Fold this sequence. Notes:
- This protein is an alpha/beta fold.
- The chain is built from eleven helices and twelve strands.
- The longest helix has 21 residues, at 234-254.
Amino acid sequence: MRTHTLGHSTLTVSALGLGCMGMSEFYKSGSEAESVATIHHALDRGVNFLDTADMYGPFKNEELVGRAIRGRRNEVALATKFGNVRGEDGSFLGVSGRPDYVRACCEASLRRLGVDHIDLYYQHRVDRTVAIEETVGAMADLVRAGKVRFLGLSEAAPGTIRRAHAVHPISALQTEYSLWTRDPEDEVLATVRELGISFVAYSPLGRGFLTARFRTLEDLPEGDYRRNSPRFQGDNFQKNLDLVAKVERLARDRGVRTAQLALAWVLAQGEDIVPIPGTTRSAHLDENLAALDITLSAKELAELDAAAPAGAAAGPRYPAGSMVHVNG
């Protein structure tokens, strides 16, 4: 397994991580037992970078990950997040970066995960009502207390990243990035590279769309949140299918799966980029890991750029209420 050291840290992570969100919420697939088995299989294959958050479940995903890594904690680079406020009933209650909230969330995450420290602690979304200096100051206190090792941000704007990094070194910036979400190429990637911050790419398979498994909306299970995602709605669905068909043809020419080609493209964008595709199935994990063995030529990269140029995906990434918290 190839590894990278994240940004301003001593944290060594696998070149491909595992996003655990879908094991507890949003995607309707897999059982908890299957998810735990997949995490174990990931660790066996050398995938040590596990990504969760307090809001997933809500709260249940950290417990699942905690159970899965029990007895194997020293094999794991463990990342979790705070900032998206959820009620016990699952309601979405906004975003908070208040220092007291930061401290309370960390204690709760440590308890659910069953660990004494978090390797990488992200602010999941930026609270525009609280100065980033206050939030990161509270996060830095957690580092000094030994409860957190390194800090990260998610979906933060370039100016916010700079201000945060001036308070305490930021080791990783997590943002959506894939062939159908190339927004970070505008300013974010240049900013983190200038500051020596690693980039963690979530949804590198476009919420599964870039696997070429979906042909109609009915291919998504009832209750799957993607049924309400703008890119899966109306005319957007067909336009995005047309985009994926181009990638699918290039994958066929190369003799690999569409998802593997899409992941290989993200990996080819730089050694400082770590994709964290999610899956609940060991077989899909193995398919994703095969992308690490794909080296794309300049011609193939140019063909993929032409097939899925920046801005080609139809529809925004999230519904309007969620998009306000992106690039904060």
